[in-house]
């Protein structure tokens, strides 16, 4: 029917015609693609996708359905979802609703019936760009709207917790700085017995150290690391006082605190099948990733950090370690959710650091 038609309009004027999916209305954001075949609920609820429209390159999306347990945040902040085919009748004993119902519940606009692999090829060729999912057939007007549309720069502030809270354990005390954390980071720490206090993104080093933590974890999150300047200053004052472990945005912020710089990638790494080389172990890990920024390799040369992991596909930096202090970070997601668990050992390395180095704050 004519009123079921919906359009995806890209900044460069490319138009894809498809069908309505999810919430009513229209939505603008930065369009990106994810190559994962599974873990759709975890991907959509990852707050690193704040203000982004997610294109799934795999053609059949939502076959496992959605439930109340697998979300990585309480309130998804993605701007849209683009699929080739949305499964109407999921086949999984844990499923409680399908993709369309899930998107409607959280007010996320979607579109189905489009060639997502064509979109993926276009993004790989031209880079990420602004896009709009809309019911309007006036595509010229939509393109004009996109030309004047400014991408927000306050994503971390919007997704971070506003007040500290505790996820109780009986082991090491960990302060988790929430830049848009995935819930599986907390679960991974709790599984190792950690007592986790989740802190707002703008917590000061004094507020963090008042907790007398054995270690500080810096979470993933959305946006440009250079927009979180206050966190960089906080990290500078924490280095040498307590073990630090950074993931994704947390990794980038540690690098910036060490004097390195970042850059926006052409189309980023998003998917659960990204190969990374562990330089010390001379091994390849298959990793889960979701990032659009990376660290400039040359900018690390005169810092106290060394590269520990690199991406096989493009050689970009995937991990660093301080040369003398108990500080390390990775660009990918060792907590997976969704994705392979090859890199879960990094949480164990963090545990070891807290055991051997965690008393520094009392010195």
UniProtKB/TrEMBL annotation:
Residues 4-134 form the Carbamoyl-phosphate synthase small subunit N-terminal domain. The keyword Coiled coil does not apply. One of its GO terms (molecular function) is glutaminase activity. Residues 1-172 are annotated as: CPSase. PROSITE patterns: GATASE_TYPE_1. It comes from the Bacteria. It catalyses: L-glutamine + H2O = L-glutamate + NH4(+); hydrogencarbonate + L-glutamine + 2 ATP + H2O = carbamoyl phosphate + L-glutamate + 2 ADP + phosphate + 2 H(+). Keywords: Amino-acid biosynthesis, Arginine biosynthesis, ATP-binding, Glutamine amidotransferase, Ligase, Nucleotide-binding, Pyrimidine biosynthesis. Composed of two chains; the small (or glutamine) chain promotes the hydrolysis of glutamine to ammonia, which is used by the large (or ammonia) chain to synthesize carbamoyl phosphate. Tetramer of heterodimers (alpha,beta)4. Small subunit of the glutamine-dependent carbamoyl phosphate synthetase (CPSase). CPSase catalyzes the formation of carbamoyl phosphate from the ammonia moiety of glutamine, carbonate, and phosphate donated by ATP, constituting the first step of 2 biosynthetic pathways, one leading to arginine and/or urea and the other to pyrimidine nucleotides. The small subunit (glutamine amidotransferase) binds and cleaves glutamine to supply the large subunit with the substrate ammonia. This is Carbamoyl phosphate synthase small chain. The gene is carA.
């Amino acid at each position: 029917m004519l009123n079921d038609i919906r359009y995806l309009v890209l900044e460069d004027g490319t138009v894809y015609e498809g069908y309505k999916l999810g919430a009513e209305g229209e939505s603008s954001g930065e369009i990106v693609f994810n190559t994962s075949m599974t873990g759709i609920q975890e991907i959509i609820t990852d707050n690193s996708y704040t203000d982004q429209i997610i294109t799934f390159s795999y053609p059949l999306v939502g076959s496992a359905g959605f439930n109340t347990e697998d979300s990585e945040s309480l309130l998804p902040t993605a701007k849209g979802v683009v699929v080739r085919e949305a499964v109407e009748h999921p086949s999984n004993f844990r499923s409680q609703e399908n993709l369309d119902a899930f998107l409607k519940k959280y007010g996320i606009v979607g579109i189905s019936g489009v060639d997502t692999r064509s979109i993926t090829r276009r993004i790989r060729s031209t880079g990420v760009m602004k896009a709009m999912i809309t019911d309007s057939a006036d595509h010229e007007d939509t393109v004009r709207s996109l030309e004047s549309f400014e991408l927000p720069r306050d994503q971390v502030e919007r997704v971070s917790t506003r007040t500290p809270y505790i996820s109780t354990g009986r082991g090491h005390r960990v302060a988790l700085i929430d830049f848009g954390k995935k819930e599986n980071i907390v679960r991974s720490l709790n599984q190792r017995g950690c007592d986790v206090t989740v802190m707002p993104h703008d917590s000061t080093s004094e507020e963090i150290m008042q907790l007398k933590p054995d270690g500080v974890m810096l979470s993933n999150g959305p946006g440009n690391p250079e927009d979180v300047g206050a966190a960089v200053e906080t990290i500078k004052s924490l280095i040498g006082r307590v073990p630090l472990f950074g993931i994704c945005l947390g990794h980038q912020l540690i690098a910036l605190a060490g004097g390195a710089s970042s850059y926006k990638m052409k189309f980023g790494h998003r998917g659960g099948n990204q190969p990374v080389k562990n330089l010390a172990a001379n091994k390849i890990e298959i990793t889960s990733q979701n990032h659009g920024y990376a660290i400039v390799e040359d900018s690390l040369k005169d810092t106290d950090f060394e590269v520990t992991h690199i991406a096989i596909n493009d050689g970009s930096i995937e991990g660093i370690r301080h040369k003398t202090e108990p500080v390390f970070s990775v660009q990918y997601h060792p907590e997976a959710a969704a994705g392979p668990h090859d890199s879960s050992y990094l949480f164990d390395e963090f545990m070891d650091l807290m055991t051997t180095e965690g008393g520094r704050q009392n010195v």
